[in-house]
Specification:
Layout (H helix, E strand, L loop, with lengths): L11 E7 L10 E2 L5 E2 L7 E2 L19 E5 L10 H9 L5 E4 L8 E8 L4 E5 L2 H4 L7 E6 L13 E2 L4 H6 L3 E3 L2 E6 L1 E4 L5 E4 L8 E2 L5 H6 L10 E8 L5 E12 L12 E8 L4 E5 L5 H4 L7
Parallel strand pairs: 12-19, 13-16
Antiparallel strand pairs: 1-5, 1-9, 2-3, 4-5, 5-8, 6-7, 6-9, 7-8, 10-18, 11-12, 15-18, 16-17, 17-18
Length: 296
């Protein structure tokens, strides 16, 4: 049993509403090959894409699984600070409750955060998805910010609900922790998301434009909700390249056609000194760990 400070964490209510899909004025997205295309993108309620489904192969660009949620409050003093708080305080594995509309009282689970658009992504069972509409209010009982592994000070935790941390079934190997992941990805092929000074919201895109890299690292079967390791990546204070460091994240949205982008990965833990040992386990997906696809 890992020792944590979970009993010292604050559980806080944060709330957003289901967003509508958006399309820019130009309508077209320009692919990395210079081809203009029109594809579904961020926002809305996605009925046929959830955690556990493949991240690639769709006619899509940055599509978010399940329900996309944001806080649209605009404060004259703090601007969009409520949505920043909504994104920062929501953690992967937090419980979400529908508090308005026909699905009022239904429960879901936070499965990701998407930067740029600043959405929190929530999975609901299919029968609940069918009752939801854009504008429905979603309450998240946020818990996880400040979570620490007391015996592993060289491993930093972020964006993780304590109960989801338990579900990961981490194994102690002396001064290191073994973490089950579906893939190990080199930092060299990571793209959009670099340059941030924190990783407590948003994501980090895996570029999928090099066929040899896809084959070498077995990325053709990458799924939404997969737990993955990124080698030589330190996410302690933003995202940087550091040899020997390793970070763990969760795949949160689909592949993309635009340069520098690809399936998004929200950071979950990192060790600048390589104290994390990834172990390949193809079942290491939030859908399996939290039994989110029991309706199928």
């Amino acid at each position: 049993m890992l020792k944590t400070n979970a009993d010292k964490l604050i559980k806080l209510s944060v709330m957003g509403e289901i967003s509508s899909p958006i399309v820019s004025k130009s309508i077209y997205r320009i692919s990395a090959n210079g081809i203009p295309v029109i594809l579904p993108g961020v926002g809305g309620i996605t009925y046929n894409l959830r955690v556990g489904d493949f991240a690639c192969g769709w006619e899509a660009d940055h599509v978010e699984p399940g329900v996309s949620v944001e806080n649209k409050e605009n404060d004259s003093r703090f601007g969009n600070a409520a949505n920043i708080a909504f994104n920062v305080f929501s953690c992967i594995g937090n419980r979400a409750i529908v508090v308005s509309g026909d699905a009022k009282g239904s429960r879901g689970v936070v499965t990701g955060k998407h930067g740029g658009i600043e959405h929190v992504l929530v999975d609901f069972q299919l029968d609940i998805l069918k009752k939801l509409i854009p504008g429905d209010k979603i309450l998240i009982k946020s818990l996880g910010v400040g979570l620490k592994l007391l015996d592993y000070p060289n491993i930093r935790i972020m964006n993780l609900d304590p109960k989801f941390l338990e579900a990961l079934n981490l194994q102690k190997i002396k001064s290191k922790l073994q973490v089950p992941v579906t893939h190990i990805i080199p930092a060299a092929i990571m793209g959009s998301g670099l340059g941030k000074n924190h990783v407590y919201s948003g994501d980090y895109d895996l570029q999928m434009f090099d066929n040899k890299s896809i084959q070498d690292y077995g990325l053709e079967d990458l799924k939404i909700g997969d737990l993955v390791a990124i080698s030589d990546a330190d996410h302690s204070f933003g995202r940087i390249y550091r040899q020997g460091a390793i970070s763990i994240g969760i795949v949160v949205h689909t592949n993309c056609i635009t340069a520098g982008h690809g399936p998004g990965i929200t950071s979950l833990m990192t060790s600048s000194s390589g104290r994390i040992v990834p172990k390949i386990d193809r079942t290491s997906n939030i859908a399996n760990l939290l039994n989110l696809r029991s309706d199928i």
